[in-house]
Amino acid sequence: MTETIRFVDVGGVRVSVIGLGTWQFGSKDWGYGDDYATGEARRIAARALELGVNLVDTAEVYGRGRSERIVGESIAGRRGDVFLATKVLPTFPTAARVERAGRASAARLAVDGIDLYQIHWPNPIVPLRAQMEGMQRLRTAGVIQHVGVSNFSLSRWQAAEGALGSPVLSNQVQYSLAARRPDRELVPYAQSHDRLVIAYSPLAKGLLSGRYDATNLPTNSARALDPLFLPQNVSRATELIGVLREVAAAHDAKPAQIALAWVISHPNVVAIPGASSVAQLEANVAAAEIELRDDEIAALTAASDRFTPVSGPPAYAKVIARKLRGARR
User: Fold this and answer.
1) Does residue 165 come out as left (phi exceeding 0), alpha (psi in the -120 to 50 range) or beta?
2) Helix (H, G, I), strand (E, B) or coil at 166
3) Which residues lie below 8 Å from residue 273, measured CB to CB, with a gap of 6+?
4) Span 138-151, mean pLDDT?
5) Catalytic annotation on 62?
6) How far is 112 from 92, CA to CA, in rounded Å?
7) Which of 74, 95, 191, 302 is placed for a possible disulfide with 45 were both Cys, Cβ 3.0 to 4.6 Å?
């Protein structure tokens, strides 16, 4: 495998089109266990850097700080090779809270500065000006270089920029062939304003790999509690998976690689898939080498348009909400 990868130049920074998402590092939600956290996770990070990946994304909430510690240990001695991103959980994110959280993340990561610090979720109670004041304090102190947001609408992204008084470099959102909402406003805005969309769950938590069907559903909580994996949704994805397999066959690739190639075919969009093994990481990175034809992109997009997942019942949604609240404490 070649040890090169494509990059996106945006807002004065250069980031790899395939990054490394690390929610699974140290988190129990994925069911990988301590052996993964203490061994394979570090091997994945090391191999990612060897392959030229420079975007590594984590968050204070992942494993309640454990992911940040694992990432910090994994990049020790390679800091100059990493565009390091992490996120603050916006639990009453006053300026003081944002500032304290940023310094705490830097300490867990064992770095002097964080390249990209992001507000993980919108908070409708605390004004954006207070959140951005905390970001500005961190930036002035040299603790962070760039400000980002996550799961923000376009209007809220723009409001954050107004509150900060300067560009908010990125918006990290769920974006894949199974989650197309960013196509409406966020991706066009990034392309026209020298901003970045960071796509999380670019494989729809593995749904687009073709691994699952109605008789083989996931059991770990990160997937099982997602309405996307309701049996009827997995069945509804059959046509989309079929088109992914057809395009994959033409490129001697895997469906998951084609799904990633579709995401990063959009200018100013990068993807941060997780990886359960070094082999999976290598396959993800290799997706950056796949150049989809216009007709292939059109066929994938059309199949995605026809995929109409249903939401879970109210009781199911309450279970998910409780699980997410617990994970964020």
Assistant:
1) left
2) coil
3) 18, 20, 21, 202, 203, 260, 284
4) 98
5) yes
6) 25
7) 74
Residue pair 185/6 in contact by the 8 Å Cβ criterion: no
Spell out the alpha helix ranges (H) of the chain: 34-35, 41-50, 66-75, 95-109, 128-140, 154-164, 186-192, 221-224, 231-236, 238-250, 255-264, 278-286, 294-306, 314-328
Active-site position among 32, 36, 62, 117 = 62
Alpha carbons 197 and 149: distance in angstroms, whole number: 10
The pair phi, psi for residue 196, each rounded to 5°, is: -130, 135
Long-range contacts of range 177-182, CB-CB < 8 Å, 24 or more positions apart? 177/204, 177/208, 177/240, 177/244, 177/259, 177/262, 177/263, 177/300, 177/301, 177/303, 177/304, 177/307, 178/204, 178/207, 178/208, 178/228, 178/237, 178/240, 178/304, 178/307, 178/309, 179/204, 180/304, 180/305
Specify the residue for token string 């409780």. Answer: 322
CATH number of 7-206+254-292: 3.20.20.100
Confidence class for position 323, pLDDT limits 50, 70, 90: very low
- What is d(CA 21, CA 62) in angstroms, rounded to the nearest whole number? 11
pLDDT at 98: 98
- Stronger pLDDT, 25 or 16, i.e. the higher one: 16
State the burial class of residue 263 (Cβ atoms within 10 Å of its Cβ: 0-12, 13-18, 19+).
buried
